Amino acid sequence: MSARLTPLSPGPDAPPVRRTSRPRLAVLATALVAVLTPALGACATDAASASGGAGPGGGGTLKWTSSYFPAHWDPVVSGSGAQFRELALVYASLTRTDESGKAVPDLAESWEYNEKGDQVTFHLRPGLKFSDGEPVDGAAVKDAVERAKKQKNSALFGDLTSIGSVDANGLDAVLHLTQVDHQIPQLLGQRVLQIASPKAAASPEKLDQNPVGAGPFTITQLVPGTKAVLKKNPAYWDAKNIHIDNVELTSAPDASTVVNGLQTGVYNFADIKPSQADAAEKAGLDVFVQPGFNASNISLNINKAPFDNEKVVDAVRYAVNRQEFVDKLTFGYGSVTNQPFPKGYVAYDPESENTHPYDPVKARQLLAEAGHKPGDIKLNLVIPAEDPQAEIVQSQLAKVGITVTIKIDKNWSTPFFAKDLAFSLYGTTGRDSAAQTLTAHFGPNGPLNLSSPYEPAGFEAAIAKVRQTPLDAPDYPKVLQAATRAGLESRALVFTYSSPNLIAKSKAISGLPKNPAHIDWTGVTISGN
User: Fold this and answer.
1) How confident is the model at residue 430 (pLDDT cuts 50, 70, 90)?
2) pLDDT for the residue 22
């Protein structure tokens, strides 16, 4: 199980209203290659000054309220959902993701593979230190990998199966791989290997509430689950491009009060739901789309009836009206999807775009062929909390003769990851490594594969070829898309819609780098009056 993969829900405050004036997520997807250019004013305003603005030279305080405030500050434990974005204030990684979605240097200034492709050496920047004064070196990387693989409460062990062992040699970390895998630099960015001081990590319980990293900020005060106060880290390798002096990170209050808090200057930066976007714009705030890999799906267990019948699975596929999810849940910001990647992203497979279009007549026909009369099939849809997605699924399947009862189980994660459920919902924020996203969904041990150990025919060979192909090889996109196509043959997942990351901020905060799924403070300024 990977705690990084958390259910995504638009929340119960999203009413069934269609908004066609908003740009669809197809625009967002294209932005993963040709990045969006939102109108992000950096002009000073009275409200901005009240919210911690500074003079033209930079500085100032970022007042960020987040609905993903970290429950844990040990990066081995808390890689979940969007929380890695907050942890990235404190921790840096070997690599980072740029605006095109590619791995670029972070703590490691360069890396190279051996000729066979089963060993990669990362060369760390010289002279770096963690905030406790310990050196950032190969030994720190070795410790981070070993903790992620072996610590009992690690959420990351399943992501590191390609790494057999690590040798530390001064500023070099040599990763010996269990297979040829050119995805490693892409994988070991913020989401999977944020690196903590080995000295501090010797006591994981203390690290969990007293984080020690080598990132752009250091924590000066932490109220667990509620608030973190940080200051700029002058020892950060790129400190010259960090223009924010202080950060106040708080756990977001009720969604309905966030916009008012932004407007009055209590906060100057927040993630918001699509239902809040209009109010934020009317309040004079900047609302922009942060490119991401969010995708929701219906999870089926083909090892359990009635989904052990392929015709029943196909009936569900044809019964799904993806546009209804977009119209009712995303306020026009979302997009239909039948795969875990947005259009325009290198892993998106155009050939698989519309393989099971909405066709309730065909769905009813397939159920009849499977020997089921209307009303024969009765299913429990088990979810962790109230979710309007579930009501849409219930309604759509009722139209083809399947009766769905929604069951809420707060301990849902236990039966889901144990593969004990037959029918559920899931949504992910994706991975920086497309191969890792694919294996999480379609691999025999994938945490998102409710039908484990099932995997679609041909997927194992297709994903192995992806790992064997260097990221800069001319045929890499074609190889990767073929693996997506093979994965989508899976009968275990029916993808429905994708919804972007929406951010509202004071106009005093300049535009952010549009790195997919990441929040990067490099070059960001907060202006004052």
Assistant:
1) confident
2) 39
Residue 489 has a CB neighbour count (10 Å cut-off) of: 15
Three-class HEC string of 33-78: CCCCCCCCCCCCCHHHHHCCCECCCCCCEEEEEECCCCCCCCCCCC
Q: What is the pTM of this model?
A: 0.82
Helix axes 434-442, 459-467, angle to 10 degrees: 160
Q: What residues make up the domain containing 369?
A: 294-499
Question: What does 207-253 look like in DSSP terms, one character per residue?
Answer: HHHS---SSSEEEEEEETTTEEEEEE-TTSTTGGG----EEEEEE--
Tell me if residue 163 falls in helix, strand or coil.
strand
Give the pair of three-digit tokens for residue 426: 């899931």
Instruction: Identify whether residues 188 and 306 lie together within a single domain.
Output: no
Q: Are residues 213 and 264 in the same domain?
A: yes
The mean per-residue pLDDT over the stretch 322-348 comes to: 91
Can you tell me the distance from the alpha carbon of 205 to that of 384, in angstroms, rounded to the nearest whole number?
27
The CA distance from 327 to 322, in Å, is 9
Name the residue among 117, 111, 93, 113 with its Cα closest to residue 178: 117
Amino acid code (one letter) for 393: V
Q: How far apart are CA 402 and CA 380, in angstroms?
A: 11
Is a pLDDT exceeding 70 seen at residue 2?
no
Q: Which residues contact 418 (CB under 8 A, 6 or more apart)?
A: none
CA angle 160, 161, 166 (to 5 degrees): 65
Asked if 154 and 77 count as a contact pair (C-beta separation under 8 A), the reply is yes
Which DSSP letter does residue 495 get?
E
In a domain, 68, yes or no: yes
**278 class by beta-carbon count within 10 Å (0-12 exposed, 13-18 middle, 19+ buried):** middle
192 and 149 Cβ atoms separated by less than 8 Å: no
**Pair 279, 304 in one domain:** no
What's the CATH code of the domain at 448?
3.10.105.10
Tell me: pLDDT of 39 over 60.
no
Q: Determine contact, residues 448/296, Cβ cutoff 8 Å.
A: no
Same-domain check for residues 299 and 168: no
Query: What whole-number distance in Å separates Cα of residue 218 and Cα of residue 89?
Result: 8
421-430: burial string, b at 16+ Cβ within 10 Å, e else: bbbbbbbbbb
